[in-house]
Amino acid sequence: MMLQSSFIAIIVLMVAKGIYQSFIKPVGDFILAASLLLLLLPLLIIISVTNYLLYGHIIFRQVRPGLHGRLFSILKFQTMRHDPTGKLSDEDRLTSFGAFLRRFSLDELPQLVNIIRGEMSFIGPRPYLVEYLSLYSELHSKRHYVKPGITGLAQVNGRNTLDWQSRLDYDIEYVKNISLSMDVKVLLRTFIQLLRLKEIDEEGHIGSAKFTGYTH
């Protein structure tokens, strides 16, 4: 009887997780993203105008792998000057206004459009570079079983100061335990992280060093 009850409980949890992941979460993401776009419209206009005056364009686009590895263009506000020579470092290219946007994570706001398009979620593993796909272990490649997020479990547990093994392990922990309670906890901790203004960049890098594979 106890074994049967445990089996039923597991089935119920799996069904609840599936309903949340496939319906409740994407609907909630869409409603919240659309609401924030309207609410933050004046700020988005100010940043857009400033970026256009600084760089001649507003948005930085880069192809990233999303759910099941499908490629999409992630959107961010431009924070660096274009370097046609390819000789300048990221530190030299980063403007003061760009550093301000990055410090408060305002450069990520265009990803609200990615959420509305269904390409991203508020909470999930960050979408890393396409070139990393062939470098993941079989376990870590499962991070693509869910939509990528603006923030995630790794971001609230150290962000760019974490080593790559830890970041990817947190991603898998999220995939295994995705739920409403998990998402609420990550969202609340993200706000705390933003207020602390720490762990934005890895030491010696703008953002973090590239993932080059495993050392073991």
Task: Describe the structure concisely.
Helix content is 47%, strand content 9%. The chain is mainly alpha-helical. The strands form 2 sheets. A two-stranded antiparallel ribbon has the order 1-2. Strands 3-4 form a two-stranded parallel sheet.
The chain-level structural class is: mainly alpha
Judging from the principal axes of the Cα atoms, what is the shape? globular
Written as H for each helix and E for each strand, in order along the chain, the element string is: HHEEHHHEEHH
End-to-end gap:
45 Å
Number of strands: 4
Largest sheet: 2 strands, antiparallel
By DSSP (H or I, 4+ residues per run), the number of helices equals 7
The average pLDDT value, as a whole number, equals 88
**Cα-atom Rg, whole angstroms?**
19 Å
Residue share in β-strands = 5-15%
| Unreliable spans | none
Give the proportion of residues in helices.
Answer: 40-55%
Sequence of strands across the biggest β-sheet: 1-2
Would you give an account of this structure?
By secondary structure, this protein is mostly helical. The protein is 47% helix and 9% strand. It has seven helices and four strands, in the order H-H-E-E-H-H-H-E-E-H-H. The strands form two sheets. Strands 1-2 form a two-stranded antiparallel sheet. The longest helix is centred in the N-terminal third of the chain and has 38 residues. The radius of gyration is 19 Å and the shape is globular. The termini are far apart. The model has no long low-confidence stretch (mean pLDDT 88).
